UniProtKB/TrEMBL annotation:
The chain crosses the membrane at residues 138-160. Keywords: Membrane, Transmembrane, Transmembrane helix. It comes from the Eukaryota. The keyword Transmembrane helix applies. This is Zinc finger GRF-type domain-containing protein.
Length: 162
């Protein structure tokens, strides 16, 4: 699989702007990519421009942050913040991936979900609907609890009148 089919390069993200270091093996600049594979959709990784040719530098985002901290490119509070942001980003992607897998036969590699009637839905809309469904289930549970409490209160009142 070629790099162009499994990733998108030169994408800037607002959440985490990391320094692009030089590869320690071949001295080429490391570049940021975003995975487009089904298993790792939208996950950020960093690799050397010569990866697969003369170099084997390749890291997921969190591993790259740890590499920068180890090599003292990031230190102190900046390093801690970068690690925290990378962990949060990874958790968000894992949650989104879980929502898609809960929905059944949804392909993560596609940015659009297609239902039987042919209507299209974006992944954000699908995630929003899944969250709305969870909230509705919670409200239904609370409603059942209130009805049960009212029933118990009515029984107690009837028992006390006799």
């Amino acid at each position: 699989m070629s790099a162009s089919s499994s990733s998108v390069s030169a994408i800037r993200r607002q959440a985490l702007a990391l320094r692009l270091a030089h590869c320690q093996t071949c001295k080429e600049k490391v570049r940021m990519y975003v995975s487009k594979t089904e298993k790792h959709d939208r996950r950020v990784f960093y690799k050397c421009q010569n990866h697969g040719v003369t170099c084997d530098f390749w890291r997921w985002e969190l591993e790259y942050v740890e590499f920068l901290v180890d090599k003292h490119y990031l230190s102190g509070e900046a390093g801690v913040d970068a690690i925290g942001a990378a962990e949060e980003h990874r958790e968000e992607l894992l949650k989104a991936q879980e929502l898609f897998y809960m929905n059944g036969s949804v392909s993560l590699g596609k940015k659009v979900l297609k239902n039987d009637s042919g209507n299209l839905m974006s992944w954000r809309q699908a995630a929003s609907l899944m969250m709305l469904g969870k909230e509705l289930v919670m409200l239904m549970k609370m409603l059942v609890a209130v009805v049960v409490l009212l029933g118990v209160a009515a029984l107690v009142r009837i028992m006390l009148k006799k």
